[in-house]
Amino acid sequence: MKHKPVPIGVVLTGVLYFGLLFYWQWDELSGAGAARDAAIFGIVLAIAHVAYVMACFQIDLPASMKQLPIIGRYSKLYGWLIFVFIAVWY
Which helix (H) or strand (E) holds 60? Predict the structure, then answer.
């Protein structure tokens, strides 16, 4: 049995996620200076993170890459950790 995504659920989840993100950062986005730059960076990083996670769930590695010892097993995890390190660093 193959499951299909529910379009209204996908749209509501996206609106809720990004709506709350913009609401949470609204004061910083309305201001100026370093706080505004940090809020913009956080929103761009959140969009990139969601796109990366969606790509990880939809695209599988080629069979030849899955055979590689470290890259094949942990490449998606390493990519996700890069997002975590960037968020912590900034």
Answer: none
> Which alpha helices (DSSP H) does the chain contain, by range?
7-24, 26-30, 34-58, 63-66, 71-89
Q: Model's pTM, two decimal places?
A: 0.75
Determine the Cα–Cα distance for residues 28 and 5; give it in Å rounded to an integer: 35
Residues 16-53 as b/e (b if ≥16 CB within 10 A, e otherwise) read eeeeeeeeebeebeeeeeeeeeebeebbeebeeeeeee
Dihedral pair phi/psi, residue 68, rounded to 5°: -70, 140
The answer to whether residue 12 scores a pLDDT higher than 90 is yes
Measured from the Cβ of residue 56, the count of other Cβ atoms closer than 10 Å reads 15
